[in-house]
Amino acid sequence: MAATSEFDAVRDDIAALKKQMEQLLKHGAAAARAKAEDWSELPGQGAETVREQVRESPLASVAIAFIAGSIVGRLLR
């Protein structure tokens, strides 16, 4: 009989662990979805930042673009 009660205790522990894992996975999935939504906004924010920098200093932006283009052009030869 002792083996049966130990078996029942192990079975109950496994069931509790299964429920905890399900909850952990649900919370993890929700956190991943929230983070993905935050990351999806980053390209738009980056583009707006670049636009603001170009508006504030257009000559410096053109100079930087020219230098970067020259470097890339030399690397591709």
Helices and strands, in order, run as HHH
- Count of the domains: 1
**What's the tally of helices?**
3
Helix content: over 70%
Summed over residues and divided by their number, the pLDDT gives a mean of: 86
**What percent strand?**
under 5%
Distance between the termini: 82 Å
Rg estimate, integer Å = 29 Å
State the major sheet: none
Envelope shape: rod-shaped
What class would the helix/strand composition place it in?
A: mainly alpha
What is the number of E strands?
A: 0
Low-confidence stretches: none
Describe this structure in words.
With 77 residues, the protein is mostly helical. It has one domain. 94% of the residues lie in helices and 0% in strands. It is built from three helices and no strands.
Quick summary of this structure?
The protein is mostly helical. The protein has helices at 2-40, 42-56, 58-75. The longest helix is centred in the first third of the chain and has 39 residues, at 2-40.
Topology:
Layout: H1 2-40, H2 42-56, H3 58-75
Helix pairs in contact: 2-3
Attribute tags:
single chain, 3 helices, mainly alpha, 77 residues
